[in-house]
Amino acid sequence: EAALALDGITKVYNSGKPSEIKVLQGVSLSVAAGEVVALVAPSGAGKSTLLHIAGLLDSADGGSVAIGGEDVTALGDRRRTAMRRAKVGFIYQFHHLLPEFNALENIILPQLANGTGAGAAEGRALDLLKRVGLEARADHRPAALSGGEQQRVAFCRALANGPGLLLADEPTGNLDPATSDIVFGVLMDLVRDTGLAAVIATHNLELAARMDRTVRLEAGRIV
Ligand code: ADP
Ligand code: ADP
Question: Beta strand pairing status for 221-222 and 213-218?
Fold first, then answer.
């Protein structure tokens, strides 16, 4: 079964007003376990909206969403939040790490929120930091880390609860090209080692070419 199955997703903003905008007009996309899909879209095409719907951060107006074979379209808020925490990892262009906590704590906290015990959460956080080459930075706060290091910590945080699906919105978009290239390699290694399904939005066609498949979002549809 698919790690992510979107079927006929529609989304309208400002419905019925002069400013109405039909962002998504029937988007269907299926991502298999272990498959890494590049999502390429012109700015404003609805890429962030689509990722938010797939990641249970936003609701569609029509169509269905299934994660790991479970239809989550009609879940209530509490179940959606629990599902999102356990099953989906998110990475943004900016790291959104909590500034008052160090790297290790930033990776431990989502696990505690998901019900993992403190000892196990710390062990997993350290293991993840090792896998991205940052074990020596465990006790550094985000401000003491370089941009590339901050993003690598954000990758660890996204994978902290062992999700089956990773959604990333321009994960290396704020890094210089050389750092972006390296950090993207770290991300791909992490994804491959974990056997995750991933949808990674990028404007960078060279990065897209390193993934399994590219889909383009244009005028509200996958083309
Ligand atoms: P992308 O990530 O591809 O740049 P977005 O999904 O952020 O696109 O936005 C798609 C379109 O929907 C844009 O025209 C944007 O202005 C509009 N939009 C996004 N969020 C909202 C919102 N909450 N209310 C109204 N319009 C929105
Ligand atoms: P970049 O060139 O990527 O922006 P920086 O010059 O910010 O990198 O940092 C270079 C190295 O020094 C990085 O490995 C970073 O983690 C480390 N570093 C920067 N500031 C601090 C700090 N205040 N405390 C500890 N390490 C730091």
Answer: antiparallel
